[in-house]
Design brief:
The complex is a heterodimer of chains A (803) and B (216). Chain A has 803 residues and is of the alpha/beta class. Chain A contains 20 helices and 29 strands. The two termini of chain B are 29 Å apart. Classes of the chains: A alpha/beta (803), B alpha+beta (216).
Chain lengths: 803, 216
């Protein structure tokens, strides 16, 4: 989230698209209801009418997988009806920037596409710079080659009739949503956009979200109280896990994972440190070397010094083009290239797409270590349906873990609040912290590598591994302090001397010379200089009256509660919205939230800086060349879709997504055998694959068995009655379940073509309860987002028949 | 007797998360019963001696053709003049207690000798344990209230759809809330506020929520 949960109440219009907030974030939804009580309008755009829709002021149906068309139509509406916040757009976005003369877009493809490699050469996706290296601009936004005009041209094709033909949303519903939401494009109104897996789990998932961001920028909703782009994270600490590099392409704090083609630290830093020639751009990430070296110091301590590139050579490197995301991991496992697997707190046998590929892939493993609080379909895969235990060689170790409430440590919520928690109860029996399991495992590895050496022992042997208390147990405070970082020597910064051993109070103090350490730069300041744990704070003071609660826990970065907040003020530092002044420049200093940098407002031509300090140009990107599939989001159909043609171009599917082609990777778009769109999701009553909640009798009482939601029209078509047993089939698998016939789903009229959509939750598995049914992921395809490889769980094709 | 306590259930704020249904079972040590998916989110289908709180789901089409989905977290209304109490007392005088300070209507084991079909309830709340024949229903978490805690269902409600407090205050809240809701939902109404302690606010015809919502 750019903002945070409590801030939702300040919104004037909340657009929930790609989330079923009321069902999947039931507690947090109270802030949505609070906003409504204060007069805000709630819009829900979703393929199904859900418990969220039931509370919305306006509900609009959308065919799953068509969000860019829906939102692209809104961009056209905003621009053509001049609903955008012009001052904000001119000063705080790259709308006035001039684009490379050779940049082009034609029939669904941007310039530089190579159909052979299915990749773009992004050489033309650039901003024109003058001889001083500063972006050329047209503040009138009139030049046909400026970002604004190119944006206008790009989305001019997204007229309401075309959008409706794609999305199946009636034109009058599109009109209502566009009108309601774009009314927030004025200085004293705020609109917030809330999304979750309904946006990410598509082959164009990242671009879905980028389209939302662009709307927020056009309306001046980014960086303000009650605004922002708010990703609702699906687990209590999933934000924390992302911050700490659970993904394979990053190191902690979102630093890039090293590549084999960058053999030295210098190569790595040159490649990843952004440059700006504009003196008014803070270009905050110019500090990349400080964050990288401090991370290496945290990992390798005294073994990291200037002479050995601070241990950079010890860090594993990805080959160029190598992608280690989970779909590829399973693919490699299926191809017998992976021998062992450690699964911590997951149930991939039920939660990953294409279970008919995933479960057989497990049988190729020599060993699997499974750390969990319960047995589940993954640890017991070898005795699951269709498995012959006698023929499976895999040795499975199930290690009993302490549950989250049985552990002390930090938990980071969607709003980036890092909250310290204590053990509510001792873990039963032999259950221990996952931290202890990792401590013991690595300690053993270090011992073995010392004794037996092996191919490359240095990265393991040299690893700093001092994370235990005096009884040899995992010490979460020690880990958290290492993450925050220390001064390793006395350091003097701006006349202030910090002593060796003190905690780093802010990432602004990190050094690139090895004198500081920090296991994750964005976490710097979670401890005060004297070692006070700021994450454990519980003070309810609210000096701004905006619910920022600056002394409740600690938020990254630097306890800033709403990021990009310098975009909430005009060039003189005056709040755009006097009713909700997040920040104001008063008597030579900033008052309110922790500002996005200390510099004065931009009217100070000498010292003022642009507000979007993480971007090299200092402004936000309506034209964003960072992604692999285009600087402007473009609508493509899902990998498996119901449309034979894309009304917007002859490019039917995302041109750069990976297409898997193994024996289990079967796809059937526009195939009469699988005529219905399916989407998958979770329910309030179960948690993810249900591995924790299906053991709980009150919850299985409320949601006992796997079901498929179908419209009355589809039920009639297939002769299905409510509660009938049916079979759902895709090109990859089939699953018996109960039909839930409902008025809450209705067929889509896509330009005269009737498209039916059905939906299932992924909350079930064969292990328990006995009659609950199995995972809907027998049906889902091995397909991922073109940028992140997040699986496309949300849109694919099936058939439903009565059994 | 003071005016006792009341619970306000504002269905316009209810998201049917069913926290109340579960917390009722948790506090009262009631088991999860064996259910089947019958084509609805609602489960269990109805009250039983093991289920004293059920969130009822009702769906249909509005005038504009768009769906509606109403949620009704059904429970004993703890009537001011409880027909069940009077009908049970016809058979066993002390099988029902109306608590002086709260007004909670609480059954005890002596209900087992009461002929169940003679027990009157306009809201169709009481159920009989098929084995022990003891009658069962919500107690308003009378035991929690006595220990300065609010009822379990109210405690678990994330959106503030359920509020517990002194009856006068709750009545006032209900009035104000209905007035507010009427601006958006002209049919908004508090159901029988003068007759019951558990007062439901609905924004449409009560029958669309549940056939016994306003009594049968």
């Amino acid at each position: 989230m750019t903002n945070h949960w409590i801030d939702l109440q300040h919104s004037d219009c909340l657009l929930i698209q790609g989330s079923n907030c009321a069902e999947n974030h039931p507690i947090a939804f109270k802030w949505v209801m609070k906003a409504k009580e204060r007069g805000a309008k709630l819009i829900h755009v979703d393929p199904r009418f859900t418990r969220t829709s039931a509370k919305a002021d306006f509900y609009a149906p959308i065919r799953s997988g068509t969000d860019i068309a829906f939102l692209g139509g809104m961009i056209k509406y905003i621009i053509e009806n001049e609903k955008y916040f012009k001052e904000y757009v001119v000063n705080y976005t790259n709308a006035p920037f001039m684009v490379n003369d050779k940049f082009d877009f034609n029939d669904g493809l941007f310039s530089g596409y190579d159909p052979g490699t299915r990749k773009y050469d992004k050489a033309t996706w650039t901003i024109k710079k003058d001889d001083k290296g500063i972006a050329e601009k047209d503040p009138t936004l009139q030049n046909p080659r400026c970002v604004f005009q190119l944006l206008k041209k790009h989305y001019s094709r997204y007229d309401m009739d075309t959008v409706s033909k794609i999305t199946g949303t009636p034109v009058k519903d599109l009109q209502t949503v566009y009108e309601m939401y774009s009314a927030t494009g004025v200085p004293d109104k705020a609109g917030t956009m809330m999304y979750a897996l309904g946006q990410t789990q598509h082959t164009s998932g990242v671009q879905n979200i980028r389209t939302m961001c662009m709307i927020q920028l056009l309306l001046g909703n980014m960086g303000i109280c009650g605004g922002g782009i708010n990703a609702m994270r699906g687990e209590p600490n999933v934000q924390g896990s992302t911050d700490f590099a659970i993904l394979s392409d990053i190191l902690p704090g979102y630093l890039a994972a090293p590549r084999a083609s960058l053999p030295t630290l210098d190569d790595y830093l040159k490649k990843n440190t952004p440059k700006s020639s504009d003196p008014r751009s803070a270009n905050w990430l110019q500090n990349y070397p400080k964050y990288t070296v401090s991370l290496l110091k945290a990992w390798y301590g005294d073994k990291a010094n200037k002479d050995n590139d601070f241990g950079y050579s010890l860090v594993p490197k990805l080959d160029d083009g190598q992608n280690c995301t989970i779909l590829n991991m399973i693919d490699n496992m299926y191809e017998k290239k992976i021998k062992g697997l450690i699964v911590i707190a997951q149930n991939p046998a039920c939660s990953l797409p294409n279970a008919n590929k995933v479960r057989p892939a497990f049988t190729n493993l020599d060993w699997m270590v499974h750390v969990n609080i319960f047995d589940n379909e993954t640890s017991s895969f070898w005795k699951g349906p269709g498995m012959d235990p006698k023929k499976i060689k895999t040795e499975v170790f199930l290690l009993p873990a302490a549950a989250s409430v049985e552990k002390q440590g930090s938990q980071t919520n969607s709003g980036r609040w890092v909250q310290w928690k204590y053990e509510a109860a001792k873990a039963p029996g032999d259950c221990i912290y996952t931290g202890d399991i990792v401590i013991r495992l690595v300690s053993k590895l270090k011992e073995l590598y010392k004794k037996e050496t092996g191919a490359f022992p240095d990265p393991i042997i040299n690893l700093t591994w001092d994370y235990t208390d005096d009884k040899g147990r995992f010490d979460p405070v020690k880990v958290a302090k290492t993450i925050n970082g220390y001064f390793l020597e006395d350091v003097t910064i701006a006349d202030k001397t910090y002593k060796k051993g003190e905690c780093i109070p802010s990432f602004a103090m990190l050094q690139a010379d090895g004198k500081t350490s920090s296991g994750c730069w964005i976490s710097c300041g979670s401890f005060a200089q004297d070692g006070t744990n700021l994450m454990a704070r519980r003070k309810k003071d609210d000096p701004t009256g905006l619910g920022l609660y600056p002394q409740w826990s600690w938020a990254w970065p630097v306890n800033r509660r709403i990021i990009y907040n310098r975009a909430s003020v005009d060039l003189n530092g005056k709040p755009y919205n006097p009713k909700r002044p997040l920040l104001a420049w008063v008597d030579g200093k900033w008052v309110g939230d922790v500002p996005d940098g200390p510099w004065p407002p931009m009217s100070d031509l000498e010292k003022g800086k642009y507000p979007f300090i993480m971007k090299p140009d200092g402004v936000s990107s309506l034209f964003g060349p960072g992604l692999g599939d285009g600087p402007f989001p473009e609508h493509y159909e899902p990998l498996e879709g119901p449309m034979e043609k894309n009304p917007l171009s002859s490019q039917l599917k995302n041109p750069v997504m990976k297409i898997f082609s193994g024996p289990c990777d079967l796809f059937a778009g526009c195939d009469p055998k699988y005529p219905f769109v399916m989407t998958t999701y979770s329910s309030t009553e179960h948690w993810c694959s249900g591995a924790m909640t299906r053991w709980q009798s009150w919850l299985t009482e409320a949601q006992p068995q796997v079901y498929v939601e179908v419209s009355e029209e589809l039920a009639q078509l297939r002769g299905i009655k409510n509660g009938d047993k049916v079979k759902v089939e895709s090109a990859r698998g089939s699953l018996p379940c109960v039909a839930m016939v409902t008025t809450r789903l209705r067929p889509f009229n896509c330009g005269g073509q009737t498209i039916h959509l059905v939906g299932m939750t992924y909350n079930y598995g064969w292990l328990f309860p006995e009659d609950s049914g199995d995972s809907c992921n027998f049906l889902t395809p091995t397909a991922g987002d073109a940028n992140t490889m997040t699986p496309e769980y949300k849109a694919f094709m099936v058939n439903v028949v009565k059994i | 007797m003071s005016n006792g306590k009341s619970i306000l259930v504002d269905t316009s704020l209810c998201t049917a998360c069913r926290g109340c249904q579960i917390s009722c079972k948790q506090w009262n040590n009631l088991p999860g019963t064996k259910t089947k998916q019958l084509g609805t989110y609602q489960n269990p289908q109805d009250f039983s001696s093991d289920t004293w709180k059920v969130v009822r789901f009702a769906e249909g089409k509005k005038e504009d053709g768009k769906p509606y989905w109403y949620f009704f977290t059904d429970m004993c209304r703890h009537c001011i003049e409880p027909p069940c109490m009077y009908s049970i007392q016809n058979f066993v005088k002390d099988a029902v207690v109306r608590d002086e300070s709260t007004g909670a209507v609480v059954y005890n084991e002596k209900t087992k000798t009461v002929p169940f079909k003679e027990v009157l309830c306009p809201y169709n709340i009481p159920r009989q344990n098929p084995k022990t024949k003891v009658l069962a229903k919500c107690t308003m978490c009378f035991d929690r209230i006595k220990n300065d805690m609010i009822p379990g269902c109210v405690k678990s409600c994330p959106t503030g759809a359920m509020v517990f407090g002194d009856r006068e205050k709750i009545l006032e809240m209900a009035k104000k809330r209905v007035a507010d809701l009427k601006k958006t939902y002209p049919k908004a109404v508090a159901i029988n506020p003068d007759e019951v302690r558990v007062i439901f606010i609905v924004t449409d015809d009560p029958k669309k929520y549940w056939k016994f919502a306003a009594g049968g």
